[in-house]
Amino acid sequence: MLIRQTIYILFLFIGTTALCISCDDVIDVDTGTTEAILNVDAWINNKSETQTISLTLTQDYFDNKSLPPAVSGASVTVTDEAGQVYIFQEDTLSRDGAYRWRPQSNETIGSVGTRYTLTVYYKSEVFIATSQMERVPPMDSITFSKQDDLGGPQSDEDFYQAEFWAKDIAGKGDTYWIRTYKNGSLLNKSSELNIAYDAAQSAGSEFDGVTFITPVRTGINANDEDEDGMRVSSIDPGDSIYVEIHSVTEASFNYLNEVITQTDRNGGLSELFMSTPLANVSSNVVNLDGNGSPVVGFFNVAAVSGLGKKFR
Amino acid sequence: MNIYRVAWIIFLAIILEQRYGYTQSKYTIDGIIKDAADGESLIGVNVFIRETGQGVVTNAYGFYSLTLPAGSYTIEYSFIGYNKVTRTILLDKNLKLHIELQEQSSQLEEIEILGENEGRSLSIKSIEMSTNKLDIKTIQKLPALLGEVDIVKSLQFLPGVSQAGEGSSGFNVRGGSTGQNLVLLDEAPVYNSSHMLGFFSVFNPDAVKDVKLYKGAIPASYGGRTSAVLDVRMKEGNSKQVEVNGGVGLIFSRLSVEGPLVKDKSSFIVAARRSYIDVLAGPFLDGDLGLNFYDITLKTNYTLNQKNRLYVSGYLGRDNFSLSDDAIFNWGNKTATVRLNTIVSSKLFANFSGVYSNYNYRLGFDQDESNSYDWNSSISNYLFKPDFSYYISETSELNFGLEATYFRFNPSRTVGVTNGETVDNSLELKYALESAAYINHKLKLSPRADVSYGLRLSHFRYLGAGTAYTYNDTIPGKRRSVVSEKEYGSGQTIASYTTPEPRISFKYETDENSSVKASYTRTSQYIHFISNTTASNPLNVWTPSTNNLKPTVSNQFTLGYFRTLGEKSQYEASVETYYRTSENEVDYINGADLLSNRYLEGDLLNGQGRAYGLEVYAQKKSGRLSGWVSYTLSRSELKVNGINRGKWYPARYDQTHNLKVVGILEINKRWSATADFVFTTGTPTTYPNQRYTSQGILIPYNSTNARNDVRISNYHRLDLSLRMEGKTIRRNGKTRRNHDYWVFSVYNIYARKNAFSTYFSQSDDRVATGQPLQAEAHKVSIIGTMVPSVSYNFKF
């Protein structure tokens, strides 16, 4: 994101060259152990492909050895306003908490403007969430360009970056999550989360109905470093990328914004100027029993437009 | 509370005082006290009448006034670091006594400072409490990071002052946030007091005469912030001869020139600094990256006649960060102050100040012709302040005045061009008027007891043209949305607030060497500094109180015991306790969007604050070995609906124990050494205890929804500096005209990696599908090593 990037580079710069004295070390911290709760990871879309909702349990923060415990035996459904029910079946082969809905031929979930309710029955408790599918603009094109100066330490190779071109739909309040696949893999580092409010990055802006602004357009690039901490080119000849615009609700946009705040940590001096206190991100999943077990996670039903291109 | 009644009582008191004052023939002595070497007026000089055992101190312009019954008197003028002057006078008419004090050449000579009148130290005699004065000469002796003398950093050695962490900008006083401190440079509010993001402050020590920090018992003449007042006064400029000061350090160089303009009438000072980090950066990095700053401080004065003196001072500073050819990012302050001192009569001193202050930043990108972005933001104010001091009698002094400040906020002016289409995303300007009337009466009830009581009545108007938004109510801690808007025309009042702010202090001398003091202060703050990060950054903005955002109001009670010790009263010690509460503290929702946000108020939360503590301070003021020990035991907490389940939690800068020890040793005529040691309890932070995955991203989770319930490791550090004076005598035996010195310092001698913060994140490596995500805890140390430095300073 434009502002964050600039400030980050500023601090990186001061930390590395001007003072050469700040440091950032990985340390061991005991954060204790506590009871696990249900995590509902339910981001589905209108593509005619298998849709997955993942139910897992939270883990102790430093449980780096095991995958999140899968939740088995839950019942998961998505219902639209008209009463159509989409049943998500537990994937008993993957055993990772995935509940899947497989479309028949060209079947898709839903249409723009429809409200959906997610219902999860688990251990005699009922968890629900609602989301509305919002509109999405078409992708126009993807371009590649050579970069002269990235800012910050970089290795000496040639640097290239990709940029997508699309226009926000006129009318205020459209929110999007732009997801990029590089050579088939989703770019899912927190620093690669690319969200837009109309054509810009925050609510209340006047960037409505215009081409997405530069930081959004170039926010589709992989953020990788080599062993020496030098940035490497986001894309090299021969790589291909596929960019999707997912429409999200405003609540989902706020959620993703919170996720960026809580997880995109650059460390070093930027901790002074960019880090806000650790706080729990929001959730739109609720336990019908107000005194029941707590739950985390988010439910969103997106409309998707996408475009791919190979860099030659 | 009936303000009019209070005003009446004060008025009656003045009348009564006047009547009594004229029942007997009384005369007034007044004058200005200056430094004999450079003609600088001296602030806070003790003027003592031996016969009555009473005295006064000079004001910010070196002026004093004493009214006594006819008779003969011995007057002593004493000031720390200066030789005492004694005058015997026969008072049978009004007298003007301008005095010049000679600076002591060296502490080595052990000159008696207080002499036979032991215990007559200001800290005992004065009604002032919760106030620290830092002598610029002491500041210059403190070991500084990278050898650069810094006024704001040196405040950290005082009791009751803390900071969120090393290198963070600003300072925290008695539980207040950094934006609750009023930082004044020659009466001009400074909205961003740091260069290079907080590593250095904007004050050029070569141009500073006096630094005073009010932590409590804030005089009625100051207002607008709830926590503390840092009053920095600039030098007037040497009125006797041309003087050049300069220094070459590792980060920047300084040069100042001062001297007389018109003999006995006018003098000036111009001081400038320029960093050369961008020059140093060249070899380290390719490209155009660079950060530099410069600042210019200037002041001149003109004595119009016996009664009137005019001062003009200004500051201009800018930090520049160059990122690449097509990007700009810079920020800085501008201030200008015009003051007229008028000695209306020997008993009435008036000062009229007109002040302009501005902070702004600009950030721009220019990718190509059809894709660019230009963003700027600013706060400006115009301030007018007439202030009067009426020295009614030897035992009674009245201070009153008015203050009016007009604010203009530019939250964000943004023009973007995206793919050839230009979008003006500017937010509307905001306007406000803050005004105040104040009066304070200082009265000696008996030779041992003093009382000072006053009232500041402040009033704030949030003015149009502008839009007032109404927000919905939602779950505490969540973003609120606009439900309706109302447009206001130019000059129309959108919201207004009035706060009566009583200020009372009391002092009783229990014996010759000790006194007890107590005070109560209420302060209000109508403009808010919006920053939710650990340390503020240059993009953080100030915003006015509105129909949604209420002014912060704080109450502080203090109680203190002051004592001098030692044969020559060379030791001063004090113990102070304070209790502070505040209403309408600003806090932020999680994920708050604070920059360029039209609906900023929807992301703000309202809370309460409380802070209490004990401050112990002991100082040895004179002799070969001088220095002080400062210890603070304190707690600073906030309670905000929507944070920490609505329960009290410690503020980010809360430090249970805070110990500082400073020792200054004069080894011989050429060498002196200073050492300091700092210990503070680790500041509070929040740890996650659980984690989960959302769309492949590791999310930290705190199952108790707590804030600041654990602490990072304790902080401690030892610094040392050595100062070597240049030779004063040439090889040929003649005295050198110029004076120079070297400062060698080592910061953080035992290279402790003090934690600034601990943060949690997912490892930066990409994880193959089906593999667990890797969580990491990181410790950030801002100064993670020993930092040696050297600087060369000269004067001629």
UniProtKB/TrEMBL annotation, chain A:
InterPro entries: DUF4249 (IPR025345). It holds the Pfam family DUF4249. This is DUF4249 domain-containing protein.
From TrEMBL, chain B:
It is a multi-pass membrane protein. The keyword Membrane applies. InterPro entries: Beta-barrel_TonB_sf, CarboxyPept-like_regulatory, Plug_dom, Plug_dom_sf, TonB-dep_rcpt-like. It is found in: Cell outer membrane. One of its GO terms (cellular component) is cell outer membrane. Its main location: membrane. It comes from the Bacteria. Keywords: Cell outer membrane, Membrane, Receptor, Transmembrane, Transmembrane beta strand, Transport. Residues 147-227 form the TonB-dependent receptor plug domain. Belongs to the TonB-dependent receptor family. This is Outer membrane receptor proteins, mostly Fe transport. It comes from Ohtaekwangia koreensis.
